[in-house]
């Protein structure tokens, strides 16, 4: 069965598997759902099946010339269109239309993946609409976007909609375990929760270095035996790293919030086995009023960012407060 190695998205996979098995694929699909829930993974898996020369039970064989070229990223009948800068531009759609005027080079059909179609400007969308209204033979278009509301209604109406949804948090955490087995279970769960069940977004947070900075903050935060001067030095040094995360500062604060929340929960529970060792250290080091004060410090930092306060200063004040340096918010 196709897609058997993909976790989650049962409804979407069932629709596509049924179409593959019956040989009644639509000429155009719209994979609609949040970023990071598997739309691109499923689209590539479908493309692998369609470009395989000898599929077995609706799965690519993995050894034919088509499969080898697909695996190397050099298959001439796989076309991927991504935004240039902030949007898919009309020139990209014009080039696509030229390519579609010719038959596939090696396979029975060409597969076109258009990613982030919600970024298309109206002129590009209208140009693509003409392709969808008169689809060229032997081509399958797979459009991917994070919300149908940002896509022209006329485009949506000419595609078969395949809905994608956030994954249950345990399943999202399991996908993170597969990709990042070295992460502690609690960190995987925190990332899954932070990304609202979108493991791709969680991995993006990690790739952007957010998790690394978070772990450095927590490690320094929990270090015992520091003088106040040493704590101030650590706090100010880490504040620079926080400020440099730019777009990542908000999710990093969310991770710190989850950490403190877990520490508070651990103090109220007898069975602390589900919690990471760092959380248990925090549980022993600070009482509930102290942890509540740290949660308030995170709240104030988030409010400061929402008011467009200086990110560097916000980071400094937050970390000085978290590190018990005795410097209050003003």
Topology (SSEs and partners):
Blueprint (H helix, E strand, L loop, with lengths): L9 H13 L5 E5 L6 H13 L13 H8 L5 E4 L8 H11 L9 E5 L7 H12 L5 E7 L7 H5 L2 E4 L5 H11 L5 H10 L4 H9 L2 H12 L6 H17 L4 H19 L9 H9 L2 H19 L4 H12 L8
Parallel strand pairs: 1-4, 1-5, 2-3, 3-4
Helix pairs in contact: 4-5, 7-8, 10-11, 10-12, 11-15, 12-13, 12-14, 14-15
Describe this structure in words.
- The chain contains 15 helices and five strands.
- It is of the alpha/beta class and 330 residues long.
- β3, α5 (122-133) and β4 (139-145) form a beta-alpha-beta unit.
- α10 (210-221) crosses α12.
Q: Name the helicity range.
A: 40-55%
Beta-strand residue fraction: 5-15%
The residue-averaged pLDDT reads 87
Biggest β-sheet strands, sense, barrel:
5 strands, parallel
Order of helices and strands: HEHHEHEHEHEHHHHHHHHH
Distance between the termini: 61 Å
Structural class: alpha/beta
Rg, rounded, reads: 24 Å
The oligomeric status of these chains comes to single chain
* Count of discrete alpha- or pi-helical segments spanning 4 or more residues: 15
Based on Cα principal axes, name the global outline.
elongated
């Amino acid at each position: 069965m196709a897609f058997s190695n993909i976790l989650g998205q049962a409804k979407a996979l069932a629709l596509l598997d049924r179409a593959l098995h019956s040989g009644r694929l639509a000429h155009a699909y719209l994979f609609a759902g949040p970023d990071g829930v598997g739309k691109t993974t499923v689209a590539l898996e479908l493309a692998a099946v369609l470009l395989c020369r000898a599929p077995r039970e609706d799965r690519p064989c993995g050894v034919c010339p088509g499969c080898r070229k697909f695996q190397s990223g050099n298959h001439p009948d796989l076309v991927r269109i991504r935004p240039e800068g902030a949007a898919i531009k009309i020139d990209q759609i014009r080039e696509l239309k030229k390519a579609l005027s010719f038959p596939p080079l090696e396979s029975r059909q060409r597969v076109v993946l258009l990613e982030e179609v919600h970024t298309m400007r109206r002129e590009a969308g209208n140009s693509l609409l003409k392709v969808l209204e008169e689809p060229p033979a032997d081509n399958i278009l797979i459009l991917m976007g994070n919300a149908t509301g940002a896509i022209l209604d006329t485009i949506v109406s000419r595609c078969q909609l395949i809905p994608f949804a956030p994954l249950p948090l345990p399943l999202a955490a399991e996908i993170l375990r597969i990709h990042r087995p070295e992460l502690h279970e609690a960190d995987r769960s925190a990332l899954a929760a932070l990304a609202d069940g979108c493991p791709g977004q969680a991995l993006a947070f990690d790739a952007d270095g957010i998790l690394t900075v978070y772990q450095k903050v927590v490690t320094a935060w929990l270090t015992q035996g520091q003088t106040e001067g040493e704590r101030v030095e650590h706090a100010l040094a880490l504040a620079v790293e926080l400020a440099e995360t730019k777009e990542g500062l908000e999710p990093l604060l969310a991770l710190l919030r989850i950490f403190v929340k877990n520490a508070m929960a651990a103090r109220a529970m007898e069975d602390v086995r589900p919690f990471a060792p760092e959380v248990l250290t925090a549980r022993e080091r600070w009482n509930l009023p102290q942890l509540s004060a740290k949660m308030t410090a995170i709240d104030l930092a988030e409010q400061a960012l929402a008011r467009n306060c200086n990110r560097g200063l916000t980071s400094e004040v937050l970390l000085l407060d978290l590190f018990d340096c005795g410097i209050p918010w003003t």
